[in-house]
């Protein structure tokens, strides 16, 4: 009996020591805040799923680095506030890297170059670019770089919206004279509404998008930068650009 007891006990102890080493290691799950109103970077499909360039990019980085992403659809202002308080782990939401934002959260290496562009109604012959916006009513999304640029235009009335789609809707309905937004977004709306909208002038800012990461999580920032460099080197970002962007012509 004693011999059997000690034999069984030895087997159990050995198994318990081996179990952690044999158990499959599960990857971390990080929350990513997305303002899914900014096609083609992030928006929702007919079923309500969040899709777009940034979504595909984050998933590619996560696969490269062995973690998972839980996407959370959040309006732009709460997104910025939530990132500042680390309510979310990260955000890739067509976010321009700025010094002010970098005080509240970390940024990855840049992954996309963009700039601000003016959209007007298709039949508008008065506005030819940013320099013609003095005294005009300009639609923007609240808290964006487009909002910042519009506020700096002397004599302009700035109408801010929680969602950029509402600004473009008011533009088509004649409620605002122009919309300022990222050039890629303007191209998207013009391409979808060629009889109602056009863009005018040149892209008038030079901006770089980055992935925002909670200030407290430098380890995650390292993973993001490592994964981003890897998918750049393999041509994944070029493939995603070809997939999601129609361009400005």
Q: What do you see in this structure?
A:
The chain has helices at about 1-20, 55-65, 75-85, 100, 145-150, 165-170, 185-190, 220-235, 235-245; strands at about 30-35, 45, 50, 70-75, 90, 105, 110-115, 115-120, 135-140, 155-160, 180, 195-200, 205-210, 210-215. The strands form five sheets. Strands 10-9-11-8-12 form a five-stranded mixed sheet, sandwiched between helices. A three-stranded antiparallel sheet has the order 5-14-6. The chain has a two-stranded parallel sheet with strand order 1-4. It is about 40% helix and about 20% strand. It has two domains: about 30-115 and about 205-245, D-Maltodextrin-Binding Protein, domain 2; about 115-200, Periplasmic binding protein-like II (D-Maltodextrin-Binding Protein, domain 2). By secondary structure, the protein is of the alpha/beta class. Helix 2 (about 55-65) packs across helix 8 (about 220-235).
Helix content: 25-40%
User: What order do the SSEs take from the amino end to the carboxyl end, as H and E?
Assistant: HEEEHEHEHEEEEHEHEHEEEHH
Strand order of the largest sheet: 10-9-11-8-12
Helical/strand content category: alpha/beta
CATH homologous superfamily classification of the largest domain: Periplasmic binding protein-like II
The overall pLDDT, averaged over residues, is 90
């Amino acid at each position: 009996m004693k011999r059997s007891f000690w034999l069984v006990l030895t087997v159990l102890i050995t198994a318990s020591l081996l179990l952690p080493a044999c158990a499959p290691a599960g990857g971390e799950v990080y929350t990513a805040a997305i303002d899914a109103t900014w096609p083609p970077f992030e928006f929702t499909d007919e079923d309500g799923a969040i899709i777009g360039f940034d979504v595909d990019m984050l998933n590619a980085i996560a696969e490269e680095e062995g973690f998972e992403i839980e996407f959370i659809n959040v309006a732009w202002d709460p997104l910025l506030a939530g990132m500042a308080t680390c309510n979310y782990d990260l955000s890739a939401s067509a976010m321009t890297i700025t010094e002010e934002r970098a005080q509240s959260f970390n940024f990855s290496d840049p992954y996309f170059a963009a700039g601000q562009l003016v959209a007007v109604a298709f039949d508008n012959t008065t506005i030819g670019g940013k320099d013609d916006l003095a005294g005009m009513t300009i639609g923007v999304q609240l808290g964006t770089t487009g909002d910042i640029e519009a506020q700096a235009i002397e004599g302009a009335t700035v109408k801010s919206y929680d969602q950029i789609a509402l600004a473009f809707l008011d533009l088509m309905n004649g409620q605002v004279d122009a919309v300022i937004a990222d050039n890629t977004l303007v191209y998207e709306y013009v391409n979808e509404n060629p009889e109602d909208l056009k863009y005018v002038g040149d892209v008038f800012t030079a901006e770089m998008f980055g992935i925002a990461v909670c200030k407290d999580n430098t380890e995650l920032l390292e993973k993001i930068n490592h994964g981003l460099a890897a998918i750049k080197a393999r041509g994944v970002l070029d493939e995603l650009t070809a997939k999601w962007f129609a361009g400005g012509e």
